[in-house]
Amino acid sequence: MNTAPHVVTRQVVAELIGPHGEVPLDAELRYDSTDPYAAVVAFLTGDSEVEWVFGRELLIRGLYEPAGEGDVNVSPSLDADGRAMVVFLLRSPSGNAVVRIPARDVLGFLARSTVAVWPGTEGDHVSPDAAIESILVGD
Known about the structure:
The protein is an alpha+beta fold. It is built from three helices and seven strands. The chain has a seven-stranded antiparallel β-sheet with strand order 4-3-2-1-7-6-5. Strand 5 and strand 6 form a beta hairpin. 19% of the residues are buried.
């Protein structure tokens, strides 16, 4: 098991897609090798942020094909200018949101995350003791 944590972040400008067009939204993609299966997209709204956590594998697949079931769906797309984008459909009890992030930003972020933890080796980065502790503390 690799015990040295590695955190990857990438600042991006996302577009919130609404009925009246696109609204720019500052966001950050995050990956932490201490939670090697997960990826985070955090939307920065004033003094707070809204985080969505989902599987890194979902993000990898979503670059090339529609992926996801449930609260987070990710798929490739093109914007009006023909630029490659990654579209996130986010569902919550409060409502749904559609957000686009340039594919080059997502790809750059994922490339750095695979240097931290190669896909398929995530289990080598999970501490059984830490996993048990997180379950017990969560009760």
